[in-house]
Amino acid sequence: RRTDDVLIETLSPETSPVQTYKVTFPANPAGATAAPQLKVHDGQEWLYVLAGRLRLVLGEQDVTLGPGEAAEFDTRIPHWLAAVGTRPTEILSIFSKEGKRIHLRARPATRGD
């Protein structure tokens, strides 16, 4: 599906409590200087940049991420995402509507496990 020229491909079943998407943002040469339109909603998001450069405005922070870089944030914090540069940006987005942390930390095995 497309939203504001952003292509969103669903990679997980609709019934899954954690949704996974491949998101492609169109090339945006003005992305580094564009005025962000921040939004908020319930949830927790983890994203990973596959290709291109992504501008992430998160509250007071304004960062540009490149391929191989990741971010995790509470979506109740005002945020905005856009491509930066003359090439599209592709990200993998994992989103939990319940706002639960998405990853688990492994603990070392103990005797008897």
Question: What attributes does this structure have?
Answer:
113 residues; mainly beta; 3-stranded antiparallel beta sheet; 47% strand; globular
Structure description:
By secondary structure, this protein is mainly β. Helix content is 0%, strand content 47%. Strands 1-2-3-9-4-7 form a six-stranded antiparallel β-sheet, with no helix packed on it. The protein has a three-stranded antiparallel β-sheet with strand order 6-5-8, with no helix packed on it. A hairpin with a 2-residue loop joins strand 5 and strand 6. It starts with a strand and ends in a 17-residue tail after the last strand. The mean pLDDT is 86.
Q: Which class of secondary structure composition applies to the elements?
A: mainly beta
Poorly predicted runs are none
Shape: globular
CA-based gyration radius? 16 Å
Taking the alpha carbons of the first and last residues, their distance comes to: 45 Å
Instruction: Give, in order, the helices and strands.
Output: EEEEEEEEE
Largest sheet: 6 strands, antiparallel
What share of the residues lie within helices? Answer: under 10%
Strand content: over 45%
**How many extended strands?**
9
- What is the mean pLDDT? 86
Question: Strand order within the widest sheet?
Answer: 1-2-3-9-4-7
Q: Count of helices?
A: 0
